[in-house]
Design a protein that fits this description.
Helices cover 37% and strands 17% of the residues. The protein is of the alpha/beta class. Among the domains are: 126-289, NADH-ubiquinone oxidoreductase 51kDa subunit (Rossmann fold); 379-436, no CATH class; 441-500. The strands form four sheets. The chain has a six-stranded mixed sheet, with helices on both faces. Strands 1-12-11-10-13 form a five-stranded parallel sheet, sandwiched between helices. The protein is globular, with a radius of gyration of 29 Å.
Length: 506
């Protein structure tokens, strides 16, 4: 068995946090039965929600497209199981923190009948452009949490000089262990997905990064690489530190290149994809299975039996938790995602979607104490992995000073929450930054709308001026023509005009 390359490259800042993953990795991945009703959100990715192409009363099959991409940045949504569409309506969803958003409600028939799909065992014979188009049809998005449409990300990368693919299996946030368990139980799919992505990108180097606290996953991935003996793919072990799994920080550790401010890893020749995304690409291209389910960690002190599950999208958190053994006690907090970057929801009727790498049920939150004035200790800057100055950013965020926020790099904040954990004054720094980013986006939208209105106004004025000039030119031409024709011609023209007016009056 080939040993993974140990990468000692260190990023700036970060924290060594308790993993809290032992309980959820003690048992194999649990397959959750298909429930009687699936509530499938139309907004499961970055970009506009997908557009329904089915109607109430329609019968659908597993894997059938039920909603189409609404914009260039979008993916289709597939039916997670067979049944009948009984509703297209607003339901609580995780991406809206439990607020309502459009969903397609499917009453399952219990037969789980699949529609016909195309398999491509011979994907190496496919032109990369055809392979990219096929990946787009699978509804695949980034399963690390960002949920950016995978095909569009690959297409954007094709316009850059990408030299290497990085598969991210670091999973550094506490409590989340779905990628760890996926690599333990399905390493061949991850490696197979890597080879498909490499062919689509036409690159000859791939690094699979795994955090050093995942020895079993590292071992299984190494065995899978030995089986295919593809020297282009290298397993790399990275230090156990949060947030080493962030894209820019991972690129810095693996290839010693710094992603520019406001830039992307493709700007320095790298494309980063989650290991779960790679496995989903393999399942779609080789097996013909679109993205209709995922591995999700169910954990927290409010869960009776923490475990990783594979569940169909549209299965509610309540149904998933009940299938794992239920609550230990009714939790006060339910979070989709990890403790550092997750989103709290107000009900467990929220359905699983493509972004849900973890369902975290907490009996209570640790008390952080009251918010106090900043003592300028500098701890927040010391742990910031992006090397920002959170203290100064907080001042400018509270003052809505957009110019200073841009100057001090707020757009580069990855909202990891490290500054919150170390602040002795318990200042909610990350919340301030999120609010400021939202305000900056609003201002940018307002400026864009004002610019569009200005262009419309200027275009109208130009059109009116052009029409006036054309009228004046035509009038001058008529006058010049009349003068050249002489007095009799002018009298004849005037007589015809009088006759036209008379006919119009009659």
């Amino acid at each position: 068995m080939s040993a993974p390359t140990v990468d000692l490259g260190m990023m700036h800042g970060g924290l060594r946090l308790p993993a809290e993953k032992q309980a959820s990795t003690a048992a194999p991945i649990l397959e959750i039965p298909v429930p009687g009703v699936l509530v499938v959100p139309l907004e499961q990715h970055v970009g506009a929600p997908s557009r329904p192409i089915v109607a109430i009363g329609d019968t659908v099959l597993r894997g059938q497209v039920i909603a189409a991409a609404n914009t260039a940045v979008g993916v289709p949504v597939h039916a997670p199981s067979s049944g009948r569409v009984v509703g297209i309506e607003d339901r609580p969803v995780a991406r809206r923190h439990g607020d309502a958003a459009p969903c397609i409600v499917i009453e399952c028939d219990g037969k789980d009948r699949a529609c016909t799909t195309t398999r491509h065992d011979d994907y190496l014979a496919m032109p990369p452009s055809d392979l990219l188009s096929h990946i787009l049809e699978g509804g695949i998005v980034g399963l690390g949490g960002a949920v950016f449409p995978t095909a569009q990300k690959l297409m954007q990368a094709k316009t850059s000089e990408v030299e290497c693919l990085i598969l991210n299996g670091v999973e550094c946030e506490p409590c989340i262990s779905c990628d760890d368990m996926l690599m333990r139980e399905n390493p061949a799919q991850v490696v197979g997905g890597a080879r498909i992505l490499m062919h689509a990108l036409q690159v000859e180097t791939c690094y699979i990064a795994v955090e050093s606290d995942k020895p079993e996953a590292i071992s299984r991935m190494a065995e899978a690489l030995d089986d295919i003996d593809d020297k282009r793919i290298v397993l790399k072990q990275v230090p156990t530190i949060y947030p080493s799994g962030a894209e820019d920080q991972l690129v810095q550790m693996l290839v010693r290149r710094e992603v520019p401010s406001g830039g992307l890893p493709t700007d320095v020749g790298c494309l980063v994809q989650n290991v779960g995304t790679a496995a989903a690409v393999h399942d779609w291209v080789v097996e013909g299975n679109p993205l209709i389910s995922r591995v999700t960690t169910v954990t927290g002190d409010g869960i009776a039996s923490p475990v990783n599950v594979r569940a169909r999208f549209g299965t509610t958190a309540a149904q998933i938790i009940k299938a794992t053994g239920g609550y230990r006690e009714q939790p006060r907090y339910l979070v989709f995602g990890g403790p550092m970057t997750g989103k709290a929801v107000t009900t467990d009727d929220v359905p699983l979607d493509k972004s849900a790498n973890c369902i975290l049920a907490l009996a209570d939150l640790p008390s952080s104490g009251p918010t106090l004035p900043c003592i300028r200790c500098g701890d927040c800057a010391a742990v910031c992995p992006v090397q920002l100055l959170p203290q100064q950013l907080t001042w400018y965020a509270r003052a809505d000073d957009e110019a200073k926020l841009r100057e001090f790099g707020l757009v580069d904040c990855i909202e990891c929450g490290c500054c919150d954990l170390v602040c002795p004054s318990h200042i909610p720094l990350t919340a301030e930054f999120r609010r400021a980013k939202h305000r900056m986006r609003e201002l940018a939208d307002e400026k864009a709308r004002a610019e569009r209105a200005k262009r419309r106004y200027e275009a109208r004025n130009e059109r009116l001026a052009r029409e006036q000039s054309e009228r004046e030119t035509e009038l001058a031409r008529q006058k010049a023509s009349a003068r050249a024709a002489g007095p009799d011609a002018i009298a004849d023209i005037l007589a015809r005009k009088r006759g036209q007016r008379k006919d119009g009056a009659e």
